[in-house]
Design brief:
Phosphoribosyl-aminoimidazole Synthetase, Chain A, domain 2, 60s Ribosomal Protein L30, Chain: A, binds adenosine-5'-diphosphate, 2 domains, six-stranded mixed sheet, binds magnesium ion, about 35% helix, alpha+beta
């Protein structure tokens, strides 16, 4: 039987060169910030049966837990540096730990983000990661920085994660090929780190879309004390959702969760710079609306007619 310390040593301690001044093994890790940078910090907790299905593939889960944290750094325009991992496990299952740590470190290595500590305890499967990044002071993409007149942009495509969820929950029929196309967007989100960093100092406000675009954009509007008009027909549907009927496309693009794309605002003078940043990073960027002084979010269709959204954003305490 693995002890807590064997488990940490075997699955979570690595000997490769460390960015941290002191890594796993002491009471605290020590991180020395790069001179002239600010530290961006974020935590995300994933709970079994709440954020992922019981019995979820361990490797995919390792990827997803870190990906959602990296996505927060991307949304701030920060460069990943390090993270901690707090883990509650029902049992020390070597096959699970092997898969989970593999998925976790594959992504960590891709973004050069180092595991520097954590905590391990017995309990219902819960994964909490705290991530640390660096950003040039004054360049972080804050939610309170949108200005009337800004364009609203989204990265990548929307809605496929929500479509996969609908298929898995039997909300609507989904053939195997469409599910196979959409499911990776739900299980393995791609954090838009390169794009976020390229937007730092160029865009005004940004966030990552985890609970649905309309609801999440609402956070920017509230924090920035502005309103917006969003064209639901301009929203870039994922390849699986793009094959479905317009009504579903609009609904899942505007309010589907788990996309982990960036929604950001920028002055119209920055259009060329933003297109170039997207091309450089290999990520589509699409202009989907504009920020206005009048408060509230106005959804319209291609013809400018008001569009009513049946689903609001996801909220853990008010959404069933
Ligand atoms: P403490 O008793 O001070 O809470 P622990 O005995 O829990 O410390 O942890 C010992 C070391 O292992 C610490 O450096 C801690 O950061 C690290 N650690 C514990 N759990 C994990 C984990 N799941 N992943 C990475 N490091 C961990
Ligand atoms: Mg401890």
């Amino acid at each position: 039987m693995l002890s807590e310390f064997d488990l940490i040593k075997q699955y979570f301690t690595r000997s490769r060169p460390a960015r941290a001044t002191l890594g796993i093994g002491d009471d605290c890790a020590l991180l020395t910030p790069t001179p002239g940078t600010q530290i961006a910090i974020s935590s995300d907790m994933l709970v079994e049966n709440r954020h992922f299905f019981a019995g979820a593939d361990a490797r995919a889960l390792g990827h997803k837990c870190l990906a959602v944290n990296l996505s927060d750094l991307a949304a701030m325009g920060a460069k990943p540096v390090a993270f901690t991992l707090a883990l509650a496990l029902p049992k020390a299952d070597p096959a699970w730990l092997e898969g989970f740590s593999r998925g976790l470190f594959e992504l960590a290595d891709e973004y050069d983000c180092e595991l520097i500590g954590g905590d391990t305890t017995k309990g219902p499967l819960t994964v909490c990661i705290t991530i640390f990044g660096e950003v040039t002071p004054g360049q972080a993409l804050r939610r309170d920085a949108a200005l009337a007149g800004d364009d609203i942009w989204v990265s990548g495509t929307l809605g496929d994660a929500r479509l996969a969820l609908a298929g898995l929950r039997d909300e609507l029929p989904l053939d195997a090929a469409t599910l196979a196309l959409a499911a990776p967007r739900m299980h393995a989100p791609t954090p838009r780190i390169a794009l976020g960093r390229a937007l730092a100092g160029v865009a005004h406000a940004a966030l990552d879309i985890s609970d649905g675009l309309a609801g999440d954009l609402g956070h920017i509007l509230k924090a920035s004390n502005v309103g917006a008009t969003l064209d639901v027909d301009a929203l870039p549907a994922g390849p699986a959702l793009a094959t479905r009927e317009p009504a579903l496309r609009r609904r899942f693009c505007a309010a589907g969760g788990d996309d982990y794309e960036l929604c950001f605002t920028a002055a119209p003078e920055q259009r060329a710079a933003i297109e170039a940043a997207g091309a450089r990073c290999g990520v589509a960027v699409t202009r989907v609306g504009s920020i206005e002084a009048a408060p509230g979010l106005r959804l319209v269709d291609r013809a400018g007619a008001p569009y009513t959204l049946s689903d609001g954003g996801f909220d853990h305490f008010t959404t069933a």
